[in-house]
Amino acid sequence: MSTVQPSPGVAPRRVVVTGLGVVTSIGIGIEAFAAGLREGRGGVKPITAFDTEGFAYANACEVVDFDPAQWIHRVAPEDLGRASQFSVAAARMAVADAGLTVEDVRARRSLVSVGTTDGESRDLDQLVEGSLGSGPDGYDPVVAARIPAGRLSSGIVREFALEDVEAVSIPTACAAGNYAVGYGYDALRSGDVDIALVGGADALCRKTFTGFYRLGTIAPEVCQPFDKDRKGILTGEGSGILVLESLESALARGARIYAEVLGYGLACDALHPVAPDRDSIARTIAIAHRNAGVSPDQIDFVSAHGTGTNANDITEAGAIRQVFGAEAMPRTVSIKSMIGHSMGAASAVALAACSIALTEGFIPPTINHVETDPECGVDCVPNHAVEADLDIVQNNALAFGGNNAVVILAKYRPERRVGGVRTGELIAV
């Protein structure tokens, strides 16, 4: 865990979310995405991104009607892979949503932190296919130049012509979005930067779909987290980028505040390449609660990793029960039922959903639900969103290799105690 250590006598800053940008299979942009969450819209459709001949079934949550030129103005869109196009587009949406201009961001010390699972593996798929057919001459140099995963963050830097900036791409698989947000939270909390564009991005690719298919974890039709008849994940794609800034900055410019980041927790157990570990997940949740200065009874709902696989859902539900107690389980939902598993983008998009839920006062549903698995035993808000007065929410992200990350968001309240102490007191997170 990172420890915030500002200058002696200087209190760590409170960090808030003031802008959201999303590219998803149920909506591009916050208005469309929020409407999709409320409606319980599903993004599943037959895959068109690559040839699926030979697979018994091939559904996914693919983004359609995405025109990169609508969002990417300074960099030639064809110079970026699809995942980088998603991240740049979502960043531009987020900045505009925050009521900022690109010039405003350029004038501040900034951080760009983007998590990913696959980077530009879709382009790698294309290069491999070309080389198998034509040998080395089959490589397209334009595509080859797009490969580095660092372009998911550097593409944003290039598009905005940022200079006083740190750009990082975080590859902690399906927890990478939460990791990226935690990285930005620390940098803002300690005063290292003035604004952070953080989140995750991934594009649908043959490699990842085939890998999960060979593991027997791809659902034939739809994703049904926590359902007794669930059959696995559906791969997805997209991006979620959040604008983070200090509370002081947001108040000074009269910004809309979606949520406050209270803290996060990380734990890497490294016990198994793919199987989740209940104790490690529970430990990550407990770390996040401690660092955020909250207790389990204060959590209004959990945005679960909720992949729809047998192992994940039982293990994750068991870890939540271990922390909260069997009689005090909060509502536990999975938006992957709607948008599929967008890999490194998943937890960042889920954080955008949590921010919208806090602002608009509702809990998104877990769709495609028929009957809850007794071994999970959660209230997954089946099929229909519910209105709710929310204060604090928890966003889980679990990844292969035991890379787990949990972020705690809250409705902004001036008097709120942060990290267990009142604003103005020195704390370690």
What does this 3D model show about the protein?
The longest helix has 16 residues, at 82-97. The model is unreliable at 420-429 (pLDDT under 50). Strands 1, 2, 5, 6, 7, 8, 9, 10, 11, 14 and 15 form an eleven-stranded mixed β-sheet that branches. The chain has 429 residues and is α/β, with parallel strands linked by helices. The protein has helices at residues 30-39, 82-97, 102-106, 121-134, 141-145, 151-160, 176-189, 206-214, 247-252, 278-292, 310-324, 336-339, 346-360; strands spanning 15-24, 27-28, 45-46, 59-60, 110-115, 165-170, 195-202, 238-246, 259-268, 301-303, 331-333, 362-363, 386-387, 392-399, 403-410. Helix content is 32%, strand content 19%. α2 packs across α6 and α7 packs across α13.
Outline the fold blueprint.
Layout: E1 15-24, E2 27-28, H1 30-39, E3 45-46, E4 59-60, H2 82-97, H3 102-106, E5 110-115, H4 121-134, H5 141-145, H6 151-160, E6 165-170, H7 176-189, E7 195-202, H8 206-214, E8 238-246, H9 247-252, E9 259-268, H10 278-292, E10 301-303, H11 310-324, E11 331-333, H12 336-339, H13 346-360, E12 362-363, E13 386-387, E14 392-399, E15 403-410
Parallel strand pairs: 5-6, 5-7, 10-11, 10-14
Antiparallel strand pairs: 1-2, 1-8, 1-9, 3-4, 7-8, 9-15, 12-13, 14-15
Oligomer category: single chain
Number of strands: 15
Mean pLDDT score, rounded? Answer: 93
Into which percent range does the helicity of residues fall?
25-40%
In percent terms, what proportion of residues is strand?
Answer: 15-25%
Write the H/E string, N to C: EEHEEHHEHHHEHEHEHEHEHEHHEEEE
Radius of gyration (CA) equals 20 Å
Low-confidence stretches: 420-429
The biggest sheet amounts to:
11 strands, mixed
Characterize the overall form.
Answer: globular
Distance between the termini: 8 Å
Helix segment tally: 13
Structure classification: alpha/beta
